[in-house]
Structure formats: structure tokens, C-alpha cells
């Protein structure tokens, strides 16, 4: 199935479709479309990565985008599973310059809007009508649904962590009256400034007295593997000879540094544009690029802004795959070729932080999970009775996809009761010894 993309916004009580190249005066919209069930999808606005989702069992996918600023947007879906992209959907948002008000929930409870925090896992709380069902979505993760208790208070801890920069938390409220409402809020996460290395400190000091402005690193491109295109600073990549582009003074010599080590240089064109790719492959791991220019008078500039990437070319496999039974008298890890009375066991395993794990029952995809910062993931599988063959595939942040893990085989059988004892008796209810058994015919077996 080819992948499709469409958009809509809520107009009064009806959902209004948005055509390509349309201009709308709403800044909250929903992207949706179709793909093959279970396909892993990345959503982009231009070259800006938004989130990673998967198509559901019917092949549908949905993603809310809240509180967009006025301007032009170009949305596209990259299908990581099929290796194809959707058509672009261009939308212009023009609200007439109106400012976005703080987010107020129905009871006029102020939660948060546009604030800045250095805590990437904040706790958000508020007050709602008792019985309201609340679901929150942020950075591709869903929290809830949770039911608001009798005191009207609710609280959500953003356990998966928000990325540095601006994030939008989208709320869906299913109210006791039956109405569904949507709200969003913005939040900025800023990490403390890192301490400068000795080389960075020296360059910064030299720049303070330099009359030459630093050059820029405007883009780093990945040109190999399943994902190709522009990288954002901090992204993972499987391209170990990435292409760097930037601007400097006309004909200036631009020096490129990786982790404070000079790795090459190139002359800028008359327009000031420069391009550089390493002459030898860079090793796997973290790389922090910056550039310095030397003008035609021989004067050196300060350092450009840093551009960080992580090079990762290793496809990993899921580790410690297991199914956990938490129903009935017998609980815990289900043994290989074992029997369980839990038709919804939790599938657990290990992987690299941030990686996406796709879980399979036989050759049928059950869904995906994301590896947490501790290298663990879990997935609640709805299996039902019968025999099951569970395996998983690991796709890391650089989109390296590993081989399928070894499978765990087990049977789900409902209504199991554990036998407490087995006794072999003779006619007088006396236990028989092994010697007796060798000479006995027609013994009685009693289960209790």
C-alpha cells in the first residue's frame, strides 16, 4: 500500500479537511493518512523531524500538531519500513497576527504555557471535572488514558523526557458529558551551558579580539542508508563521511574541526559558500564539529556554533527478550515452550536508548515500543489463547535495523489450575514405594 497524508482542523463541531497549498486561520491541526499496518513512519516539516509513529492494525495513522506559529509548513511522511515517502502537503497558517493565549482547561485552571525549564521530565498537573478521561501526547509518546478522580485533580509525569528546545504537549479530554475536547501547551527545555574545553576556551578568547566574524555550519547531510537528508544537531547518522555546508567570507580558508581536532580545510567560493566531506571515514561515536575561517589578510576568526552528531553504523539485536505472566497463581517469566494463563503478557527486552523495537507474533507485527534511557522497553501484547512465537527487531536512532531476535515460544491456555500434589495409592490409601510399583498392576492415581 502506498503511503498517504492528509490534514484537518476542528471548525465548530465538524472536522474540516485542508487541501494542499491551502491557507488557514487555525493553528491547531491533525495529520493522518494510510500505510501498511505496522509500518514505522517518520513525520517531517520540511527537513525538521517531528516524531516517529506506526500505522495501526487497520493501516491508519494519526498525529496532532498543536499551537503552530503563523508561517509556511510542508509536511511529509517517510515510511521506514517500506522505504518510500509520501507526497508533500504544503499549508500556510495565518491567524491575523493574534497571539496564542495561555492554555486554560475547561475549569479555567492555568497549567503552563511557554515557560522554560531545565527539567526534561517535568510533572504536569491540573484540575478537571471528576470522571474526565485525559490523554496527553508529547514527543511521540502517549501518557494515559487516566481517569480524573473524585477530587478533580490529575497529574502526569513526563517520564520519557522532552528534547531540548520547544515541545508541544497535546491533550485530549473525554468529558463525562460525552464531548471530546483538545488542548495544547508549549514548553521550552534548556540544558545548562556545558563547560568549555581548553581548546574551546582559547578559541573563544581569540574570537573576542578578532575582527573576522566566525563562519557558519549551516547543514550536515547524511547520504547513505535508509534515511538520507539533512541532519539536525544532535541526530544519529549511519554516514561516516557526512557532507558539511556553510558560509564564510569570499575566498576565505575554512578549517573544520571534529572534537577540537583539525580534520581538513577548504576554500570558500566567491559567494562565501563552502562544502567539505572528510577524506577518511569518521569512527563511530560522538562528533562535535566547528569551523574557523582565515580571511585574505590572514586573520583568523573565532569558532562557529557547534554541530553535533553521533555516528552509528552498527545494527543491533534485541537482548533479553522475555514474556512476563502477571495473572493467576503462577506468575513471572514464561519459560521457553511453557504454558501461561495470561492472554495479555508483557513482552520485555533490552536495546539502545531511543531505539524503536517492533514486536512480532509469528510474522504478524503487534506494534512498537521505544527503549528508555536505561536500555529497557516493554510492550503489553494482546495475544489470546493458543500457541505464540514472539520475536522483535531493533531499529536504532541512526535507522540501523538489526536481524530478528531469537523467538520465545509458549502457549496461552486459560483456566489453568496448579496441581498441589500427586499421590499414587494402593487399595488401602497407603503410599507405594518404587519397589511396590515395579510389581503392581492397576494402581490408583489421585490429584489434589
Describe this structure in words.
- There is one protein chain.
- With 448 residues, this protein is mostly beta strands.
- The protein is built from two helices and 37 strands.
- It has helices at residues 198-209, 434-439, and strands at 6-11, 14-18, 22-24, 29-34, 40-45, 48-54, 60-65, 71-79, 84-85, 89-93, 115-117, 123-127, 133-138, 141-147, 153-157, 165-174, 180-189, 216-222, 229-231, 236-237, 243-247, 253-258, 261-267, 273-276, 285-294, 307-311, 319-325, 332-333, 338-340, 346-350, 356-361, 364-370, 376-380, 386-395, 408-412, 422-425, 444-447.
- Strands 3, 5, 6, 8, 9 and 10 form a six-stranded mixed beta sheet that branches.
- The longest helix is centred in the middle third of the chain and has 12 residues, at 198-209.
- It is globular and about 85 Å long.
- 25% of the residues are buried.
